[in-house]
Amino acid sequence: MQTGKIIQSLSGFYDVLTTDQKIIRTRARGNFRKQKIKPVVGDWVDFEDDYLRKIHPRTNELVRPLIANVDQALVVISSTQPEFSFNLLDRFLVVLEAQKVRPLICVSKTDLLSTTAAENLKIELQDYQKWGYLVFSTSEIRKDHASFQKRLTGRETVLAGQTGAGKSTLLNYLCPELNLETAEISTSLNRGKHTTRKVTLYPYAGGLIADTPGFSSLAWQQVDSVKLPQFFPEFVTYGKDCKYRSCLHLNEPGCAVKEAVAQEQIKARRYQNYCQFQAELKEERPIYQKKSTKRG
Ligand SMILES: Nc1nc2c(ncn2[C@@H]2O[C@H](COP(=O)(O)OP(=O)(O)OP(=O)(O)O)[C@@H](O)[C@H]2O)c(=O)[nH]1
Ligand SMILES: [Zn+2]
C-alpha cells in the first residue's frame, strides 16, 4: 500500500503525488460511490495497484473550489481593473476563516497605479497587517521572491480571488514551467474571462499550490452569524470588554466593539462591512434571524 495526495482529478482518474515525489494515476473503487464519498484534490489517500483504497480524514474541505486539506489561501485582489474593494477583501477573509483556512493577502496590478495611489493603498492595508494578516503585492513578490516562498514551504496553498484578479499570472510567475493560460480583461464588462476551470495542485517551493476557478460571487458557505465576530480579529480583541459575552456588536448595550469604532481604534469601514454581512446572513438563513436581533 502507498500513500500520497491527490493533485488532480480528471474524468474518474486521480493523479496522486507520492511521498517520494512520483505521480501515479489511480482510479476510485466502487465502494467509495456506495459510501457516497468522492475523492477530491488535496485528499491524502492510500492506494494499491492504481486503485484508491482509503481517503484519510480531511482537516477541511472547500466547496467552491472543491479541494480538501487546505492550509492557507492566497487572496489575490486587484488594486485596479477590477477596482480594489475592501468589501470584497473582507468577504474573502471571512469565508476563508470560517473554513479554517488561513488567508494571506496579495494585491495585484499595483504597477498600474500612480505612486501616490499605490502608497495610499499600502497605508490602508497596514490595518490588516496590524491585526495579523500577511500582506504582499505582486510587485513586492517579484522583487523579493525568497521571503514570499518561505510562506508557502510545506503547505497546501490555494489561490483565491475574483476572476481577472491575476491568479494565473502570479502562478505563471512563480512556476514558469506551467505556462498557464491567462486572459485579457474583457473591456466591455471590465471583468476577466473565466480561464481557469479545473483544480490542480502544483508542487512549488516545497509545498503545493493550486490555481482555482475565479469566484464571481462568494457564497456564505459555512458562515454562522453568531460566529461572524470571530472572523474579525480586531473585534475579538475589543469584544472581550463587551457587557455581554454573546454580544454580536449590533444593538447590544455596553458594546466595546462599537465603542472602539467610535474611538477609531477599529476602522469604520470594517464595522460597516461586518454589519452588511450580518444583514446578508440574516436574509440567506432566516433560521438565524432571532439570534442576530437579540439584545443583551
Ligand atoms: N499590469 C498588470 N497586469 C496584470 C497583473 N496581474 C494580472 N494582470 C493581467 O490581468 C489579466 C487577468 O489575469 P489572470 O491571471 O488571467 O486572472 P485570474 O485571476 O487568473 O482570472 P481567472 O482565471 O478568470 O480566475 C491578464 O490580462 C493579466 O495580464 C499585474 O500584476 N500587473
Ligand atoms: Zn459588542
Structure explained in plain terms:
With 296 residues, the protein is α/β, with parallel strands linked by helices. The chain has 3 domains: 2-57, Beta Barrel (OB fold (Dihydrolipoamide Acetyltransferase, E2P)), CATH 2.40.50; 67-211, P-loop containing nucleotide triphosphate hydrolases (Rossmann fold), CATH 3.40.50; 228-293, Orthogonal Bundle (Ribonucleotide Reductase Protein R1, domain 1). The protein has 10 helices and 15 strands. Strands 10-9-8-11-15-14 form a 6-stranded mixed beta sheet, sandwiched between helices. A 5-stranded antiparallel beta sheet has the order 3-2-1-4-5, with no helix packed on it. A two-stranded antiparallel sheet has the order 6-7. Strand 8, helix 2 (86-98) and strand 9 form a beta-alpha-beta unit. Helix 2 crosses helix 9 (268-284). The longest helix has 17 residues, at 268-284. The radius of gyration is 21 Å and the shape is globular. The N and C termini lie far apart (57 Å). The model is unreliable at 184-196 and 286-296 (pLDDT under 50). Bound molecules: guanosine-5'-triphosphate (GTP) and zinc ion (ZN). Guanosine-5'-triphosphate is lined by residues 108-109, 111-112, 138, 161, 163-169, 182-185, 192, 194-196, 214. One of its GO terms (molecular function) is GTP binding. Keywords: Cytoplasm, GTP-binding, Hydrolase, Metal-binding, Nucleotide-binding, Ribosome biogenesis, RNA-binding, rRNA-binding, Zinc.
